[in-house]
Backbone:
């Protein structure tokens, strides 16, 4: 008997599936793929102002940006930014998730208000912290003085290290609840029986965390860290609105540099070249993430 | 398992710490937005307001374009949410429940969207929108917001879809339901928490989006809140009261939304994972 | 009611062939049970009939129609799933009416049908509840009702009783038998439990590793198993197998002997057997007893005693390590550690050749297939059962 039967039913399923994914493909194709290709062409021309024409200049833009220290410094700052954010967010999110997983009065409510810093628009975050950290009327300085940690009000955004640190803390504060909720989901997937069996076997709380929780959470943790890294690399608005990249370029991460080059420096093609380089770097990281996120054998 | 008092104490301290860092800043902002200006900027800040005034809110709502920004943001976010949900549900079902050639590759490719800095697409998209005359049109923002929300939204659908047993779909097929009917009458009702979660995620992402809104919208009348509020702040030199009032009102819709659907969102995210 | 015919069915999962050329006919109005150990392919076979699994080679016919290519919804079959697969977000009433809605029947018809079925299954008071509010047994009935409401030609059951507790299982078995008597429907029922098979089936198909081992009425399989696998699968506790060697063959049967077994005449046909061949003697535990006159006896040490009141299960371990299970009288006084001899009458034994094929027993009851019921649909007039399995 021929195998035509398999193809007929499978084809019906495939056709239906394709009609379902077609809208997404088209949408993302138009809004992502096309601009990406466009950026590539832009990067090998010499366009300066948006809308103006340019001619082909080969790899000139790439050469000039890769030889400029501004690019490498911005990239270095981006790395610092990403690593710092990942560290702070992971720790905060992990601690929160562990706390929120327990049962105690008020935990249900806690699981809801914990995300408030994430649901609030960035502009509000900016306003909140610009005010809190300001030297006139802000709450933080007087608080720190009252606690005896400092003697004089500190300008949080006035020095290079404190500006970068403050930004990282603020950004982490904003994003950690989202990661915490995802981690919470992962924690709840671990069956309670395992903990009970371990307790009977004599494992302390810490041992149970180290030998059961961490290993079973590891895939989720890994995926979230990678996604978090990708997303934090791209953070633009918090940095731009709080420090504008300053003081004196101290917080000019790569997205800031690209934005400034394109819209303030009117050197569009250079900005495009920088974007392409950044994309290539991120791609490598993303491929790693995607291999862990993609559907495995469990799906039909 | 009983917890030792030591652990209970640590838990309480931890929770208090979380409450302080998450909520206290907002308390400060909201409570200060009704203070008189001199109290706001005084060098000795107060936890509980000593004065009371609604002048900042009045100023914000009457002599600035804020109400307009609010409406624009609501429209854009609602539309982005609707489109994202539809796209995520349809393609999520295809990726996680159907078999077709190129499925895995396509899914990975879509997730790869996050590898690209938004900056990369910013300029070309500007050019594109300009060509189709969508500059300064709110619809352009909807397009962008959906693009950046959809990949993660599809990923979110996965756990929710996995919780629906395959047998139920098979039973429906035997009962004579077409594939579309199964999707509409069986799958969608059963993944309602997932849909709500995706919707909230998309709404919030749109509500807060700044970069594209600042570049693609030019006239004041069409600005969304993030851009408009940033503009107001720049305009009035350090008018803290106005700023705080703006922050308070901007926070309100999402907090209210969350107050009602919030626990479904969190419960949905966590319960959707339990098979 | 219609018949189901399978011809040359094959199915592969990846590199492994799970259904290896199956030919079966399920007569109209008959309760057929496919039974076999886990992994034998019985569920896959059922799903191929339903259209939920694709057929790699072969043909599925329902009634006269070739449905191999058809969508599940066009095959006219109803299925009861192991986990019931009730729609959790719909009430019982909506669950029952769903299929009829899909068929675009008028509302009045649907309501009438749903009520009738609910009454027949005693779930009338549950119509407005959701599945999560029902007990296991109630959910089972709703799953059953969902199938019955559709007026189809064939009912497929995929291990429907495995999720129920023992008492419920017995009750549901009776329920299913009654339903079959009343509806005279064609049923194809899959289970791993041979007790269900024996009690419910008009005909049993024993499947192993994708191959049909034997097809026949329950008692036929009990008295005349075609091979050692069927002999060991049907009947609980499992048949005892004693390795023997053929000493001589004759018109009365084959004389065999084993290390502890004195020469015994097994009254079977002897085609293909020669002295010196290795063979297996099979005796069911219910035929092993404390030895009487004229019985062959084997000695050993009692290893296990299980008293059930009405009977006592005894396991005896012989010197060569062979374990023999016997069912003896409930009042028998045996204790673990004792030496005990168990015996059987020669006409109770089965003989299998070196390949496991049974030699035909001369004195076992011959069970003919039940005559076709006169009120069965004329289309299913072919009540003869053809069963061939590819080697």
Residues:
């Amino acid at each position: 008997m021929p195998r035509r039967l398999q193809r007929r039913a499978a084809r019906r399923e495939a056709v239906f599936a394709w009609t379902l994914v077609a809208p997404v493909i088209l949408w993302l194709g138009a809004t992502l793929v096309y601009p990406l290709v466009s950026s590539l062409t832009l990067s090998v021309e010499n366009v300066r102002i948006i809308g103006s024409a340019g001619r082909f200049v080969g790899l000139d833009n790439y050469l000039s940006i890769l030889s400029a220290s501004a690019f490498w410094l911005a990239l270095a700052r981006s790395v610092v930014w990403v690593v710092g954010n990942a560290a702070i967010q992971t720790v905060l999110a992990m601690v929160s998730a562990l706390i929120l997983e327990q049962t105690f009065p008020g935990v249900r409510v806690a699981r809801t208000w914990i995300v408030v810093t994430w649901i609030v628009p960035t502009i509000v975050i900016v306003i909140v912290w610009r005010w809190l950290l300001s030297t006139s009327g802000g709450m933080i300085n007087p608080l720190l003085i009252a606690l005896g940690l400092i003697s004089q009000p500190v300008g949080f955004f006035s020095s290079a290290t404190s500006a970068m640190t403050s930004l990282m803390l603020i950004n982490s504060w904003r994003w950690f609840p989202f990661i915490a909720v995802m981690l919470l989901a992962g924690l709840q997937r671990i069956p309670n029986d395992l903990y009970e069996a371990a307790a009977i076997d004599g494992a302390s709380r810490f041992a149970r965390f180290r030998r059961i929780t961490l290993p079973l959470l590891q895939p989720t943790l890994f995926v979230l860290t990678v996604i978090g890294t990708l997303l934090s690399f791209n953070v633009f608005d918090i940095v731009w609105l709080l420090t504008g990249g300053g003081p004196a370029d101290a917080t000019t991460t790569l997205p800031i540099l690209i934005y400034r080059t394109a819209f303030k420096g009117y050197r569009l093609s250079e900005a495009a070249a920088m974007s392409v380089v950044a994309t290539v770097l991120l791609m490598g990281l993303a491929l790693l993430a995607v291999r862990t996120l993609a559907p495995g054998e469990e799906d039909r | 398992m009983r917890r030792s008092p030591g652990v209970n104490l640590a838990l309480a301290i931890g929770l208090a710490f979380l409450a302080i860092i998450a909520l206290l800043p907002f308390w400060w902002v909201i409570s200060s937005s009704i203070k008189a200006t001199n109290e706001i900027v005084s060098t000795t800040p107060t936890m509980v307001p000593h004065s009371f005034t609604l002048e900042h809110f009045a100023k914000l709502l009457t002599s600035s374009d804020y109400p307009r920004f609010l409406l624009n943001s609501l429209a854009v976010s609602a539309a982005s949410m609707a489109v994202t949900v539809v796209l995520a549900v349809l393609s999520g079902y295809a990726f996680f429940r159907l078999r077709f050639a190129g499925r895995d590759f396509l899914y990975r490719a879509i997730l790869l969207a996050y590898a690209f800095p938004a900056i990369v697409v910013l300029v070309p998209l500007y050019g594109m929108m300009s060509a189709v005359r969508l500059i300064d049109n709110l619809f352009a923002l909807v397009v962008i917001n959906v693009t950046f929300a959809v990949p993660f939204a599809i990923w979110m659908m996965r756990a929710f879809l996995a919780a629906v047993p395959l047998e139920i779909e098979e039973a429906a097929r035997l009962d004579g339901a077409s594939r579309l009917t199964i999707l509409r009458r069986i799958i969608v009702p059963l993944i309602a928490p997932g849909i709500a979660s995706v919707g909230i995620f998309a709404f919030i992402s749109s509500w807060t989006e700044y970069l594209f809104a600042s570049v693609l919208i030019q006239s004041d009348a069409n600005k969304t809140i993030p851009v408009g509020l940033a503009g107001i702040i720049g305009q009035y030199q350090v008018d803290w009261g106005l700023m705080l009032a703006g922050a308070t009102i901007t926070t309100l819709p999402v907090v209210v939304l969350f107050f009602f659907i919030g626990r479904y969102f969190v419960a949905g995210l966590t319960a959707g994972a339990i098979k | 009611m219609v018949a189901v015919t399978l011809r040359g069915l094959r199915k592969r999962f990846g590199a492994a062939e799970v259904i290896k050329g199956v030919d079966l006919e399920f007569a109209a109005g008959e309760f057929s049970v496919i039974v076999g150990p886990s992994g034998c392919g019985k569920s896959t076979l059922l799903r191929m009939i339903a259209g939920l699994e694709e057929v790699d080679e072969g043909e599925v016919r329902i009634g006269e129609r070739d449905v191999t290519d058809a969508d599940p919804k066009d095959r006219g079959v109803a299925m009861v799933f192991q986990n019931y697969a009730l729609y959790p977000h719909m009430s019982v009433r909506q669950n029952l009416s769903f299929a009829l809605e899909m068929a675009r029947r008028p509302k009045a018809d649907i309501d009438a049908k749903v009520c009738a079925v609910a009454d027949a299954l005693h779930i009338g008071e549950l119509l407005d509840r959701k599945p999560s509010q029902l007990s296991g047994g109630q959910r089972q009935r709703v799953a059953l009702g969902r199938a019955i409401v559709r007026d189809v030609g064939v009912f497929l059951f995929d291990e429907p009783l495995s999720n129920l507790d023992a008492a419920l299982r017995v009750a549901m078995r009776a329920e299913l038998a009654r339903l079959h008597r009343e509806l005279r429907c064609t049923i194809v029922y899959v289970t791993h439990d041979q007790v269900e098979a024996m009690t419910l089936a008009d005909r049993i198909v024993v499947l192993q590793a994708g191959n049909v081992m034997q097809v026949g009425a329950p008692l036929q399989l009990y008295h005349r198993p075609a091979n050692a696998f069927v002999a060991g699968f049907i009947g609980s506790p499992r048949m005892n197998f004693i390795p023997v060697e053929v000493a001589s063959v004759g018109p009365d049967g084959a004389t065999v002997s084993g290390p502890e077994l004195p020469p015994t005449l097994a009254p079977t046909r002897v085609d293909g057997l020669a002295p010196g061949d290795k063979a297996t003697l099979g005796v069911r535990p219910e035929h092993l007893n404390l030895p009487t006159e004229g019985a062959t006896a084997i000695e050993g040490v009692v290893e296990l005693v299980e008293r059930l009141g009405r009977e006592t299960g005894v396991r005896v371990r012989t010197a060569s390590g062979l374990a023999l299970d016997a069912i003896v009288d409930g009042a028998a006084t045996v204790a673990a550690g004792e030496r005990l001899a168990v015996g059987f009458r020669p006409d109770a034994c089965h003989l299998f050749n070196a390949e496991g094929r049974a030699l035909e027993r001369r004195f076992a009851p011959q069970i003919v297939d039940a005559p076709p019921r006169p009120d069965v649909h004329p289309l299913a007039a072919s009540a003869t059962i053809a069963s061939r399995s590819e080697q």
In short: The longest helix of chain C spans residues 166-183. Confidence is low (pLDDT under 50) at residues 372-391 of chain C.
